[in-house]
Amino acid sequence: MGNQLTEMLKGTLEGIVLAILARRSAYGYEITAWLRDRGFSDIAEGTIYALLVRVEQRGFVDVEKVPSEKGPPRKVYSLNAKGRDQLAEFWRTWSVLTDRIEQLRHNGNQHEKGA
Amino acid sequence: MGNQLTEMLKGTLEGIVLAILARRSAYGYEITAWLRDRGFSDIAEGTIYALLVRVEQRGFVDVEKVPSEKGPPRKVYSLNAKGRDQLAEFWRTWSVLTDRIEQLRHNGNQHEKGA
DNA sequence: ACCAGTAGTTAGCGTCGCTGGGTAGCGAGG
DNA sequence: CCTCGCTACCCAGCGACGCTAACTACTGGT
Description:
Oligomer: homodimer
Radius of gyration of chain A: 18 Å
């Protein structure tokens, strides 16, 4: 029945990851661990990898393979120009949605538009 | 490619509709029109009907068939107790998500958790 | 030799919103 | 009378997304 948060993450998780990459480059395992630390403890391991593949295919990130001393090579992702555009677009859309919803939440949204 | 907003609506649209029904009972066509008025102009007609069927099946709303002078009978939906619980849960989850994302947005979320 | 931790990949699933069509009832116009 | 347009609802099929549950591969410790 996928809980609320799972459904809400659809569409926002990509923005979240892009926002993380906007700060600095990172690899999948790192991002997953970091999200867990930050309260996004509910995000599944595999989800991030799939998402990273997607954003790579769309050309929002550049990738570099970096050897690790502790395991298989890491795929380090960096946000590029197109990715920064996408992130900006994400924040715009996010603002629109949150604005409308907050309006709906507090404001006595009387349906009676006439007045 | 479903634009951002479409993806973001997943999981939130249900809450939006429940919030509308919390103010007063309404039928599908009415809700659709009202959403269009309120800037949610991008929401597809059929989407609302499918959503209403879903929330009915989950027992969040009660339904009453009311004849219309201008067309086929309306199905008027009212939020019931279970629906109010669900709506409260929705707001809780929504708050959690927005809090985390706003934190990510402004706050210089240095990954360097160490020092 | 074995296991735990690191790091990434894949196939298949369920949910959601969208698309595009259809049905039904009523009133106005040709 | 027949069609058009508005009201009002329903349905099948689609793509995108996140989740589940596996698997591969490399390193270091016991």
